[in-house]
């Protein structure tokens, strides 16, 4: 689908009988929905009832046809503000997708890579109740966690040990900050991996989401609520 601001790809569920979910994918800087499609398809194999939406960054990447979520060429001190603006715009798009698919926030998972991961984290910070789970590959927090701030989404951080573009220290810092705020968060580091989403990272990410969903089902069963 396309409008004046943004292009995105939608992949229908592979199995209408499987539990319904909404998987929203955010590519890295200098990429596109088409380039990220193999990752989305690999995720759908694990969640065959999920509708997948691969969103496109609104900013043109310098020197090519690819896209960014926010301009990285400006002053570094303004990066948090630019990430917050991108996250606010994107949260509106996610809400529209939820309405059109009939899938609520409790069954929505945000999956971002690099700059897309940073924006995904910023989205659930600025708009509580937008999604239940965030999977952040090679990401970092756009700004420090505020005193008293706690994310209601579960956050799974995944990082390559030898990532030279977004060093793994950012993932460690994010995990410490999230845990200190009381946010449910995990960190998996893949040895000998760099700034990529390889098969091992896909397996780790989907496994973390399955574990979170299973825990949610157990809690719901204990409360006597209907399971999805």
Automatic annotation (TrEMBL):
InterPro entries: AB_hydrolase_fold (IPR029058), LYPA1-2/EST-like (IPR050565), PLipase/COase/thioEstase (IPR003140). Keywords: Hydrolase. It comes from the Bacteria. SUPFAM superfamilies: alpha/beta-Hydrolases. One of its GO terms (molecular function) is hydrolase activity. Residues 18-200 form the Phospholipase/carboxylesterase/thioesterase domain. Belongs to the AB hydrolase superfamily. AB hydrolase 2 family. This is Phospholipase/carboxylesterase. It comes from Quisquiliibacterium transsilvanicum.
